[in-house]
Amino acid sequence: MKYKNFYLLSLFAIILASVYPIYMGVATMGSYLNNGAIDVADYKKYIIPYTPICIALIVSTALMPLIFKLFKRYALPAVSFLGTVLFFASEFGFEQIKVIEGYVEMPLESWQLSLCMATPEVLRAIGEPIYAAYNTAFKIHFYIIAIVIILAVLNVIYGFSKMLREQDFGKKRPLIAQAVSVLLFIGLCILACFTAFYRNGTINISTLSAILMSVFFIVFGITVGIYCGSIFYGKSKLFSKIIPAITASLTTLIMYIGELVLMGGVLFKYGNGFFFEPIAAIPFSAADIVIILFSGVITYIVMQLLHNPHKD
Prior knowledge:
Largest sheet: 3 strands, mixed
Number of strands: 3
Radius of gyration: 21 Å
Strand order of the largest sheet: 1-2-3
Order of helices and strands: HEHHHEEHHHHHHH
Strand content: under 5%
Structural class: mainly alpha
């Protein structure tokens, strides 16, 4: 495939995948501009952070040829920086929107936080308000997820673009792995958007919720680990395997810490028994620690399988 064809195909794919989030953003912004706020019934799920993510990816991908021309070997940092700036600019804009439920007016992120805790139907059933107070930890939590998606997607598009431009396919395998991991992660994010992973509004969650949350944490760490591994692919074992594995586990740990702050110092319990209980004075259970370590182990195995032995 020629670079021009890949560029057009990738831009088309990004736009196609962004149709609904962009539509949600336009519809919500139109309602907000007309009325000064939007009613809960008119709120489109998960405008933030997904509409800003799509805006960042569309513009960054569209400008990729220009960025290659202007920044050459520094094109990846440049396009990553551009995508990040575009995301935060549009994200902060959408965060100014107010949502109204009955007589309560709340920031958009407060309504969004509630959708992460449980579905509105569940919250109504247990007698909780279907909105939550403003929480900085929640915003940081979402920002991290958004930036990982943006950086990973741009890494894939940039990587394949560079390969086709230079006809050097040495990094094809890690880029394919990155594409698979980020697509899986985005799929899990979409599932979380519409189901809240079937959480019931309490810290004691079902087996299905526990499995989905565990997979989410692991894939999140692996996506970041492979991103790191793809950049250092072909380098020494320390850089190409060990550091990506450590990065994956640290990323999962950071996400856990975010959940811990978000939940007021406790974590969701994945089951009953000592394996799922907090260990002594720390809030993490043995299950949580296994999940954190597992993301690093899987990343190491993936990079080991991808790496060319003669480049060790």
